[in-house]
């Protein structure tokens, strides 16, 4: 398990180090592409929204069961280039998780394991700024899965729309609200989208949630952020 303290202070240097020390050819190819220049204005950044559905919320005993990816920038979402995979987990899914994400036993039985599609996933995100809503899910589950498959860490900077929204809400609080430590409004994906009058989408589909995350970031930039700010001011 990684923590925020474990993350590199300099992503450029980290990519350079990993490209010379990794043993897996797949991981080497990923890091060899390099990370996006930290000084790149967000308006010029090629981005890809990522979302996972998992068999549960516990990192210790849950697995990725679907992955959604959609490339975008601050103006357009390239749905025609989006990707969605159902992934066969090693352990059987519980009925509770099936109700949550709607992926059935028969769907996962016909799906490939993560190791079969991992190269394609990495190809889709390399060289792009990966955007998620609540980075701990995507970062921790992906890191754990790659460690189990390749026995090597695979970390990259993430832009977290949940954290961005929390920062925006904190900035909007008045003096007395801060003094009284008034709780922030909810920052789950659906609640955030409502604040920008974005349309309602059914949740818990990885591709739909990836599109919803991309749209949310576009709205956050349009209403609150400077599109000329460098990506290093937003990523974690």
From TrEMBL:
Tell me a Gene Ontology molecular-function term this record carries. Answer: nucleic acid binding
Specify the Exonuclease domain's residue ranges: 46-226
Give the record's GO CC terms: cytosol
Q: State the InterPro entries in the record.
A: Ribonucl_H, RNaseH-like_sf, RNaseH_sf
GO BP term (any one): DNA metabolic process
Q: Which UniProt keywords apply?
A: Exonuclease, Hydrolase, Nuclease
Name the NCBIfam families for this protein.
PRK09146.1
Task: Tell me the protein's name.
Answer: DNA polymerase-3 subunit epsilon
The organism is Neptunomonas qingdaonensis
């Amino acid at each position: 398990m990684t923590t925020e303290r474990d993350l590199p202070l300099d992503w450029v240097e980290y990519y350079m180090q990993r490209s010379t020390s990794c043993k897996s050819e797949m991981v080497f190819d990923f890091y060899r592409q390099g990370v996006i220049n930290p000084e790149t204005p967000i308006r010029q950044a090629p981005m890809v929204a990522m979302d996972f559905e998992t068999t549960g919320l516990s990192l210790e005993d849950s697995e990725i069961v679907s992955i959604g990816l959609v490339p975008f920038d601050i103006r357009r979402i390239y749905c025609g280039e989006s990707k969605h995979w159902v992934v066969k987990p090693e352990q059987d899914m519980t009925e509770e998780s099936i109700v949550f994400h709607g992926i059935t036993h028969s769907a996962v039985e016909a799906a490939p394991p993560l190791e079969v599609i991992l190269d394609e996933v990495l190809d889709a995100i390399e060289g792009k700024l990966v955007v998620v809503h609540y980075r701990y899910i995507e970062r921790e589950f992906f890191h754990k899965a790659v460690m189990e498959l390749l026995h090597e860490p695979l970390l990259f900077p993430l832009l977290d729309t949940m954290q961005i929204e929390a920062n925006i809400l904190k900035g909007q609080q008045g003096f007395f609200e801060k003094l009284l430590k008034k709780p922030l409004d909810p920052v789950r994906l659906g609640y955030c989208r409502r604040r920008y009058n974005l349309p309602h989408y059914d949740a818990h589909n990885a591709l739909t949630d990836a599109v919803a995350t991309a749209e949310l970031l576009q709205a956050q930039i349009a209403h609150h952020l400077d599109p000329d700010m460098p990506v290093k001011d937003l990523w974690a």
